[in-house]
Amino acid sequence: MPELPEVETIAHRLRQVVCDQQIQTITPLHDKSFQGNPLAVVSTQITDVRRKGKQLRLQLDNGHSLAIHLKMTGQLIYVDNEHRFGGGHPTADWVQDLPSRHTRVIIEFAKGGKLFFNDQRLFGWIKLISDAELDAQWQSLPPDINEANATAEYLQNRLGKRGIPIKVGLLDSSIVGGLGNIYVCDALNEAQIHPERPAKSLSSAEWQRVTAAAKRVIEQGIELGGTTFDGKYVDVAGFAGGYQTVARVYDRKGEACLQCGGLIVKTKLAGRGTYYCEQCQR
User: Fold this and answer.
1) Eight-class DSSP state of 175
2) What is the CATH number of domain 152-277?
């Protein structure tokens, strides 16, 4: 699933090319993938591209927005005579002719460019929604980990009395937004906290370490354009991220911990592949 750095990267890339563009048509190719009346968007102009959690927002000039969630396998790919870029789940759609058999929605612009929403598993969606309704939804969401109000004190207040594993708590998007499996594994390694530690067992100093580490790995992920582990697409210009080249523990089973030289092991926790150093994470 694309995580916060990947979605932030898509927002940044799209902001450069779709802002101030007028939408000519929206063509839904699957009923599950587009919610709303596509005719209501014709001739509107995109004024901004924003992100909250793992959700994108194409702000329109008519008091509405196109809210987009990529879920597990979604992609957004912008194509015109000069550009081809975007991001999301890495597949051959990054490089092959579009539309493909995974294309679910096509947005065409008056100047000739097209934005393709592709989704293999049909979990993602684009929704036409009023700005007021979307603002209310976003305001009800918890802070993203890279926002100022996602403090150590906030996380300790929400999780500090619970017996769930700290990793499970950090992955709970009802508590804090934007932390996915890759970045939580790496943050806990940097903070030297075992992923199975009960959240209530962490001291205030440990909460400070965890929070600071989580913010650092997310910011590093954004700087590097997110993560692309699929070896076939790690060098696709305009799409691939570079965080996988600096990952601390994720996908590094059997290798040496960058922090202490100990062995990185892999286990399953709440159904998720979990990487950690058996020597320095306590």
Assistant:
1) T
2) 1.10.8.50
Q: Which residues are catalytic?
A: 2-3, 54, 272
What the block records as the tokens of 13 is: 């890339």
63: left (phi over 0), alpha (psi -120 to 50) or beta: left
- What CA–CA distance (Å, rounded) separates 208 from 205? 5
Q: For the chain, which residues make up each domain, given as ranges?
A: 4-139, 152-277
pTM: 0.94
Residue 128: what residue type? L
Angstrom distance (rounded) from CA 160 to CA 136: 28
> In angstroms, how far is CA 61 from the centroid of its own chain?
26
To which residue do tokens 């940097």 refer? 190
pLDDT digits over 31-68, tens only? 999 999 999 999 999 999 999 999 999 999 999 999 99
* Helical packing angle, 204-223 and 181-191, nearest 10°: 130
Q: Which ranges of 160-203 would DSSP assign to H, the alpha helix? A: 166-170, 181-191
Tell me which CATH code domain 4-139 carries.
3.20.190.10
Q: Determine the Cα–Cα distance for residues 22 and 29; give it in Å rounded to an integer.
A: 21
| Cβ neighbours for 48, distance < 8 A, ≥ 6 positions apart | 15, 19, 57, 58, 59
d(CA 19, CA 30): 26
Q: Does 1 have pLDDT greater than 80?
A: no
Contact 178, 4 (CB under 8 A): yes
Q: No. of H helices and E strands in the chain?
A: 6, 12
